[in-house]
Each structure stands twice: as C-alpha cells, then as structure tokens.
Write a structure and sequence with these properties.
about 525 residues, alpha/beta, 7-stranded beta/alpha barrel, immunoglobulin/albumin-binding domain-like, 2 domains, five-stranded parallel beta sheet, five-stranded mixed beta sheet, 10 strands, globular, Glyco_hydro_57_N, Glyco_hydro_57/38_cen_sf, 1,4-alpha-glucan branching enzyme, carbohydrate metabolism
Length: about 525
C-alpha cells in the first residue's frame, strides 16, 4: 500500500569554464570528467530503466552555465577529442596489461566503458541537452532551473536588481533551451533569505529546494518538519532536505561511498605510469592529470591498495541500494501514521557526487529505483511539482535564512579569505543598475557593450569562486577569473560612458564570454 513518496533531486552544475583563448586549459577537464563520469552514465541509467519499463521520477537542476556548455559547439568538439584519446589510451592499456589477468580484465572494462560513452554521446548528436529534454518530455525527469551563473543570491541582495537579473536571465535561458517555463528552482547552495520570496513569486516559481534548517527553524515551526513542503507567505513552496537519507550518502563516516570495495578516487594511471607513456593523454603542458582509468579499490586506510573488483563493487551497490530502500520504507511507514498528508522524503544531492567522487553512484541510483519498483515497498517516486499537484494543502511558514554549506549559513562564501570579492561585485552591480537606468535608447553598438557588461558582471558573481578560495584549491585561477571579469566590466563601463567603444575589444570578449546570447541589460533597471 502506497503511504508516501521519495523525491530524488540532483543538482547539476559547472562554472563557466570555456577558454578557447588557452591551449588545453586545465579547467575544461572539470566538465569533461563530469560528462564521462556523471552525465552520460545517468543518461544510460535512464535509458535502461525506460527500456525495462521501470517507472521512475527524478528531478534534476541543470544550471544555465552547464546548459550553455553542453550545447557549445567548441566544447563539444573538444570533448569528442578528449573521449577519442581516452579510448586510444584504453586500447594501449589492453596491450600493456596483457600479462596480468586481473589488470587486463579491468583494462577491458574501461575500454568497453569509454566506447559506450562515445556511442551514447553520438546517439544524442553530441549534445547532451537533447537527452535531458527527451526525458523531460517523457515525464520521468523534471528539469528545474537555477540563477544565471550560480550567484549566491543572499550575498548580492543588497542590490535587489542584481538578484532579479540573475533570476530573470537564468529562467529565460532555461526557457530558450527547454521550450517551456520551469516549475522549480535550485537556489544556488540552497541559500535562502526572506527577500527572495517575492521575487520568486514574481517569476512564477512554484517551489525551491531548501536546507533542512530552512524548514526546521521556520516561523511558525512546521507540523511535519522536512517530511512535507511548506509555503512561504507569497505561496512559493519549499522542500527541505531530509537529513537521514543525506547522511547515508554524504557522510564521511557512515556514507556508502566509503565502502572498501568501491573504486579509489585518488589512484589514477595519469599519475602512476611513466610520463612518456601518459604524456599524450594528460595536459599539453605536461601537467599530470586524471585519465579516468583507476585500477584500485578503496581497500581501507592504507597506501597498499588492492585491485578493483567490478563484480564485487556491484554486489555492494545492490546491498546498499536495498538498505537505502528499506530505510525509506521504515521512515515513510513511521511518518505516515502521524501525518494527515503523505510524507515526502526529499533527497537532494550534487549530481557530480554520483560517478565522479563515487564512481558507482549512477549504478546505486539505478539499483535503488529497481529495488523500489518491487511490490513490497510502500512509497513511490515523485517530483516536487507532482506532489504539489496532488497535495494542495501546504502549511504557510516563513523559511529560515540558511544554506546547505558548513554551519548551514553563508560563511563558506563570505569569510576572511574571500570577503574582498563583494566590494568589487557590489560596486559593479551599482554601476550596472545605473547604466540600465540611464541608457533608455542606446545605439546598436552601445546595446552590445551594455549586454556584454551584464555578462561579465554575472560571470564574476558565481558562487564557485569564493567557494574555491575558501577551500584553497585552484585559487590562482579563480582570482584571475574574478579580476578578468571585473576588469572587462570596468573597461566596458568607461568606454560606454565616454562613448568611445573599442569594437575590436568588444568583439573579442563577446567571442570569449559568449554565454546568454539573448541577454538584455535592461533587466537591471530599477
């Protein structure tokens, strides 16, 4: 008997890392690895479930930068080259490992895997948005939107026009790609504050995904915690992250991905084999990188890693999927006895966890859905949109400002390491608003410059940049990115103000930062 629902929500995001001006930029690999390990494997999971007539419902946010890059001709050509080289490397590995039966079996696994990735990619005309649009039309996948460049909206809310511009551009970009308006939104980093309520309502957003504390500390306190959505004063619904299901996947201590039988992320032949051998398959500058060919399993807290056993890993996937399904069964059975509406367990995760950090992640999603399709389970899969259509009684509360970052606040994105960013951002936001209010009937050239200024500002606002600085990873690249966009914005502002627009400079940065081709700077008008 059906007593409640599970809603899987996957947040798919990459910062805009298109760099045609650089030979073999390292940052492209972020996108290519995510395509190889996350996006295409999930597409293959969806295809397999449809083929086997197994009903499922999944929600995916695909952010505007990622949508843009997945459809970009230049990046798709670069990815095709990358995948062809990966296949070539697996063919060399078949020869190199021929005298080691265990290794050679893994080499065959990778060769088969990469060839199947290429087939799926070509099946969708080398444009993965074709796949996601297909699943969206079939009704098994609900694609939701995000702000234009994943700006952390509460931290730019000092300039409400900047928030509106981020949302308006993100939603229009979604419509241009998907062909219809979005019902829901993934607020970047699940960051909510009170002022977002009215602007989300203005753009006809029905719901957003929130951190658990947004609901648990809401005013008044919700009757059902995170087990049912709440409605903001303006009627926009918030679905709160369920922490039990979250810990089972995310936790460093009890999470499934840490099982010793799963593939070890930090051992890759790109770092382990002789440079002469791997040089054609790493960075053109000779920087060692992951190739995606990893022969070891986690094994335990030891440097002496054992070889990966794919069959054993798949056994653990099925075991963990069955455990996860039983936990949701017990959870929903218990909740349903005390609720007047069906409980919904909202399970939001970064898509990149499934396949990149946890190699078997897509297989886990597949196994969980297949296990849940058995008759003995008391829940169905549902999207937030469908839940609201079927259950219109939603308690009205004011969600608590929060994020899904450390401490559930905004401190990851504004702290002593990165607070300097916002001084420059707020100055540029104020200038952009002034420009939009001043230039009512610009010339064609002025319009192009104003639109490009809006692009540069939005690209500088990405929440990825302060996050990376806080985590001290590719800090040099990020600081250069922020300063480059701010410098381009400032130069455009000076040239517009003085009416001496440098056409060559404008054409150059239009070609480089070509996101949002139909952007309209007037979205910054007060």
């Amino acid at each position: 008997m059906q007593k409640g629902y599970v809603s899987i929500v996957l947040h798919s995001h990459m910062p805009y890392i298109r760099h045609p001006e650089i030979k073999d930029p390292l940052e492209e690999r972020w996108l290519f690895e995510a395509i190889n390990e996350c996006y295409i494997p999930l597409i293959q999971v969806y295809e397999g479930l449809i083929k086997d007539k197994i009903s499922f419902k999944i929600t995916m946010s695909i952010t505007p930068p990622l949508m843009s890059m997945l459809q970009d001709e230049y990046l798709n050509e670069r990815y095709t080259e990358y995948l062809k080289k990966s296949i070539e490397l697996t063919e060399k590995e078949l020869i190199r490992t021929k005298d080691n039966e265990e290794l050679n079996k893994l080499a065959k696994f990778y060769n088969d895997r990469f060839n199947k990735l290429m087939k799926t990619y070509e099946d969708y005309d080398c444009n993965l948005m074709n796949a996601f649009k297909k699943f969206d039309k079939l009704g098994c996948l609900e694609v939701i939107t995000c702000s234009a460049t994943h700006a952390l909206l509460p931290l730019i809310a000092i300039n409400p026009e900047a928030v509106r511009a981020q949302l308006a551009t993100g939603i229009q970009s979604y419509i241009d790609t998907m062909g219809h308006s979005p019902n829901g939104i993934w607020l970047p980093e699940c960051a909510y504050t009170y002022s977002l309520d009215s602007v989300l309502k203005e753009f006809n957003i029905k719901y957003f995904i929130a951190e658990s504390k947004a609901l648990l500390y809401a005013d008044p306190k919700p009757l059902y915690g995170t087990s049912a959505p709440i409605s903001t004063p303006n009627g926009v619904c918030a679905f709160g992250r369920d922490m039990d299901s979250s810990y089972q996947v995310w936790s460093d201590f009890i999470g499934y991905p840490g099982d010793e039988n799963y593939r070890e992320f930090y051992r890759d032949i790109g770092f382990e084999l002789p440079m002469d051998y791997v040089k054609p398959y790493i960075n053109a500058a000779g920087i060692r990188l992951d190739t995606g060919i990893k022969y070891h399993k986690i094994t335990g807290k030891t440097e002496k890693k054992q070889y990966y056993n794919r069959e054993r890993a798949m056994e653990k996937v099925r075991e963990h999927a069955a455990h996860f399904a039983k936990c949701r069964q017990d959870q929903i059975s218990g909740l349903s006895e005390h609720m007047e509406v069906p409980p919904i367990i909202t399970c939001p995760y970064d898509t990149e966890l499934f396949g990149h950090w946890w190699f078997e992640g897509p297989d886990f999603i597949d196994a969980f859905i297949r296990e849940s399709s058995k008759e003995n389970y008391c829940y169905d899969f549902i999207t937030p949109s469908e839940y609201l259509m079927n259950n219109s009684r939603v308690q009205c509360c004011s969600p608590n400002p929060s994020s899904w970052g450390e401490n559930s606040d905004y401190s990851v994105w504004i702290n002593s390491s990165n607070q300097w960013i916002y001084r420059d951002l707020h100055r540029c936001e104020e200038i952009m608003i002034r420009l939009a209010n001043t230039y009512k009937s610009p010339s064609e050239l002025q319009t192009r410059a104003l639109n490009q200024a809006a692009r540069e500002l939005m690209l500088a606002e990405s929440s990825d940049w302060p996050f990376i600085i806080k985590n001290n990873t590719t800090v040099e690249y990020v600081i250069k990115r922020i300063n480059t966009h701010i410098d381009r914005f400032t130069r455009l502002y000076d040239s517009i103000s003085k009416n001496i627009i440098d056409i060559k400079f404008l054409e150059k940065i239009e070609a480089l930062d070509n996101i949002f081709p139909d952007i309209n700077y007037k979205i910054y008008e007060t």
